[in-house]
Amino acid sequence: MINHVFRIIAVLLIVFPFISCETKNYKDPLTPEERAWLIQHDGKITLAVEAGYAPFAFIDENGESRGLATEYIALLENKLNFKINKIKFNSLNEILDAAKNKEIDIVNAVTRTQNRAQYLLFTKPFIEIPNVIIVRKDQKKSLSVGQMKNMKVSLVKGYAITEYLISNYHDLEIEPVLDDLTALLNVSFSRTDAAIIDLATASYFMEQKGITNLRIAGDTGHDIKLAIASRNDWPVLNRILAKGLSTITDNERELIKKRWFSLGRLSLLESQEFWTIILTAFSVFLVFLGLILVWNRVLKREVAQRTSQLKKELIERTIAENEIKKQKRLFETMFNTIPDGVVITNTQREILLANKGMEATFGYLPGDLVGKSTQMLYADTSRYNEAGTSVFNRNAKRSGELYVTRYRNKNGREFSGETFGAKLVDENNNWIGNLGIMRDITELEQSEIRIQQAQKMESVGRLAGGVAHDFNNMLGVILGHTELALLQADEHHELHDDLKEIQKAAKRSADITKQLLAFARKQVISPRQLDLNDTVEKMLNMLRRLIGEDIDLVWQPSAHLWPVKMDPSQIDQILANLCVNARDAIGGVGKLTIETGKKSFDEEYCSKHPGFIPGDFVLLAVSDNGCGMNKEVLDNLFEPFFTTKDVGKGTGLGLATIFGIVKQNNGFINVYSEPGQGSTFKIYLPRIFTNDG
User: Fold this and answer.
1) β-pair type (85-89, 46-50)
2) Can you name the residues that pair with 118 across neighbouring β-strands?
3) Which helix (H) or strand (E) holds 555?
4) Which residues contact 223 (CB under 8 A, 6 or more apart)?
5) Counting CB atoms within 10 angstroms of each CB, which of 115, 225, 564, 669 has the fewest?
6) How many helices, marked H, and strands, marked E, lie in the chain?
7) How many CA atoms lie within 13 A of 620 on its CB side?
8) What angle separates helix 442-488 from helix 496-519, to the nearest 10 degrees?
9) Over the stretch 66-92, which tens digit does the pLDDT of each residue have?
10) What CA–CA distance (Å, rounded) separates 174 from 162?
11) How far, in Å, CA of 511 to CA of 654, rounded?
12) Distances from the Cα of 320 to the Cαs of 125, 284, 292, 326, 602, in angstroms?
C-alpha cells in the first residue's frame, strides 16, 4: 500500500510541472471543430480496461486501473482536458467483441491486425516490444520460431502474435491459454516446452511472481506494436487521440517506460582470469598505498622523538623518500603496462589518473583526461548512468562488476566495450573514489560472428550433401525409367513430348544436385596437377560465347605461375558461374577481366585481415564493371539458394558451389564490391611443390 501511495505521488510530481507550464503557455492541438466534438462527448466516451494485461493495463488488488498504457490515457485526459469512462473486462476477446458491437469507444494497448482494422481505427504505436521465446533454464539451446517444430508452445488466445504464428508456422503444437502468467507457469511446471510472450510482460511477471527457472531462448522477429484504437464510425475521435499522443514528450514517455520495465539489460560477463588479474593489480596498488602511508607516519613520529638527531633524521628521510619514489615508479610502470584503459576517479567520477592504455582504447592522451568527467567516454548518458549504478548501488566494501557497454572514442566512433568498475575505500572504509578498467571488445564480437557464420555454413553443407545424394539416386531412377519409356514411344507417340520434358527436367535437377554436392564438398573429383593459365585459356572461347559480344573479355595471365592440384572441371565450374553472374550484373555493354597471379601471406598479415590463410597461393581473379553489390547482399553471398535474380532466372547455388569447391581444395575466397562500382572475386588456391620446385 505504501509503495502504491509513493507511485501516485511520483506521478503527480511528474505531471504537475507539465500542467503548470501548459497553463502559462498553452496551445490547443485540436481544431475548433474537434474541440467542440470533444466537449459534446466529454464524460461519455468509454474505454475498455483489461483486468490482467500487466504491465500495460491491469486492475490491482485495490481495484484501481494501473499500468504503462493506463498512464498514457491519464496524460491524454490531462493534456486534452476531457474525461473518459472506464469499463472493466476480463480478457482481450471480451474487449474486441464489445468493440465490434460499438459497446465501447476506445481500446487501449492493442496491436493492429487486418481483422481488427475492419471495425477499429488505430493511432501510430506508442511503444514497440519484441516477442521472445521463453524456456526453462535446463534447456540450453538458443531458438528461433523456425526451430520449434513439434514443440508444445503456450500462446495467449486473441493476441496478434498468436494469429500470426497459427497462420505462418503450422508445425507448432499450440496450447492456448487465457493470460500471460498462465503461459509462463505452464513452462515453469513443464506442462509445455515453451511460451511466446512479449519481453516486457515476461520480465514483469518473472520478477513479481519470483519465477526463477525460466530464461529467454530467442527472439521471434515479430514485435508487438501497441496503439490506441477507437471505433471506426468516429474518425474524429481517432484524430483527437493521435494529436493527443503527439503532445506527449520523449521525456514523459521515457519516465513512464522506466517505471514499468527495463529492456535490453545485458547479462553479466564473468572471467576467472580477468578477475584474477584485476584483483592482483588492485591488491598491489593497495599495498603500495599502504606503504606510503606507513612510511609517512614513521617519519613524522621519528621527527617528534629525535629532534636531537636532525642530521640522522634527514638522512633517514632521504632514504625513505627515495623508497617512495621507487615504489611510485614501480606503480606507474605497472599502471601504464596494463594494455586496457584504466582510470582512477574521485567520488564525483572526475578522472584523477589515467594510464597509457586509454590512448590505445579511446585516442586520448592520459593528461587530456585528468579533471574531466568519465561521461565523455560513453556513447550516451544512459550508458554512463548504467556504469554508475553498477558501482554505486552496492553495499560491499570493495564493490565491483564486469559488464558490457557502448563507448565513444576521441573521433566520435562508437564501439562495444567490456568494463570493470569498483569503489576505492581508505583504511576506515570511507569511499574515496572509483577504479574503472575498460576494454575494446569489437574484434571479439566480430570473431564470434565469423564463428557462428562458419558453423551455419557447415551445418547447411552437411544437410545439402545428404539431401543431394538421396535426391540424385531418385533422379537416376526417373531418368532410367524415362529412357526405357522413350524406347517404346517414338517421336510420333502421344507421350513422346511429355517424356522428353520429364527427361530434360530430371537432367536439370541432376545438375542442381551436382552443385549441391560441390557446395557440400562431397562430389566425386579427379584432382591432378594443373597450370592454371593453360586451364583458363582452354575455356576462353566458350566463355566469350557465354557472355555475348557486347561484353569485352580481357585475359591477363601471370608468367611463371605455380602449379595447383585440383579437378580441371572444377575450374570450369568456377569460371562459368562467375562469368554468367558478371554478364547479368553488367546487363549490356561492359568489360570482364580474368587474371592470374601468385600471392604469399604470412601470419602477421593474416592476423590483421580476417578470412586470409598463411601460405603460398595461386590467384584466380574475375572482375567486372557491372552494378556491384551492397553490404546486405555481400553478407549473404555464399549462402545456398540466396539470389537477387528474378524467379526462374537463378537457383542461388552458383556462388555456393564456388564456395564449396574452393573450401574442398583448401583455398579461400574474397569479394570486393560496392554499388555502381562493379565486383571482383579473388580466389586463392594453394600451390603444390614439385620435384623441379
Assistant:
1) parallel
2) none
3) strand 551-556
4) 128, 129, 130, 131
5) 115
6) 21, 24
7) 26
8) 150
9) 888 899 999 999 989 989 998 999 888
10) 9
11) 11
12) 70, 19, 9, 10, 52
